[in-house]
Amino acid sequence: MEQLSSVNNKLIKDLAKLKQKKYREDTGLYLIEGFHLIEEAFKANLNFVDLLGTEQALNQVAEDYQVDLDGKNIYLINSAIAHHLSSTKNSQNIFMVLKIAQPKQYPFNFGKWVLLDNVSDPGNAGTIIRTADAAGFDGVVLSPNSVDIYNPKTQRAMQGSQFHINIINADLVEVINALNDNAIPVYSSMLDKTAKQLQEFAKVAQLGLVIGNEAHGVSDEIAAICDEKLYIPIKGQAESLNAAVAAGIIIYHFA
């Protein structure tokens, strides 16, 4: 275990840059923080690139997850460095660096999938991924203009679900075509009272479910190639539902 004492240390500077998408893409690395996410990474048998923490935090990791603190790429840091690396107000002073390992291609020949069409809010995207995981879906596909799943806010909202299900960035037109080629229906959630109401849909063994952008909904291009459009009835005076809440209702309808 190596001790680091300055925020100006080159490694610390490099790791702090991982809060930005550009540096995550350039390095192929991302940073997670907090005991729960790190526990989920250990449960998934992932090999970390670096592990950093204050003395108390590292000792807890060693005790809880049988980590040898004399191993390579384990760093003892002070609270100033922890604050510098943290994306939260109340850091737990423990950090892990992991390799980005999303699949570049996937056959989409089986399963239940949530397709995010330009979903831009990290909290919404992370919550939808977590809900899909909880409901037993096979994975989530994000369109190229959707939020980066390695955004710290998305990471916190996912709560480790990125280690449990497939998360793929792909062109949704290509994904929907692949699902259709395998006789898997694709439904788009629409704020459109002319669409079929959710309760009219029977459960199916496999499907793709499109959730649209928070402000603009599902794009016309994507809606046009979906098999059905579905609508959650609004019974009160609210104009619409939050994207993650709507997704949760629909996901569990088909779970």
Automatic annotation (TrEMBL):
Keywords: Methyltransferase, Transferase. One of its GO terms (molecular function) is methyltransferase activity. SUPFAM superfamilies: alpha/beta knot, L30e-like. The keyword 4Fe-4S does not apply. Signal peptide: none annotated. Residues 31-104 form the RNA 2-O ribose methyltransferase substrate binding domain. InterPro entries: Alpha/beta_knot_MTases (IPR029028), MRM3-like_sub_bind (IPR053888), Ribosomal_eL30-like_sf (IPR029064), rRNA_Methyltransferase (IPR051259), SpoU_MeTrfase (IPR001537), SpoU_subst-bd (IPR013123), tRNA_m1G_MTases_N (IPR029026). SMART domains: SpoU_sub_bind. Pfam families: MRM3-like_sub_bind, SpoU_methylase. GO terms for biological process: methylation. Belongs to the class IV-like SAM-binding methyltransferase superfamily. RNA methyltransferase TrmH family. This is RNA methyltransferase. It comes from Lactobacillus panisapium. The lineage of its organism: Bacteria, Bacillati, Bacillota, Bacilli, Lactobacillales.
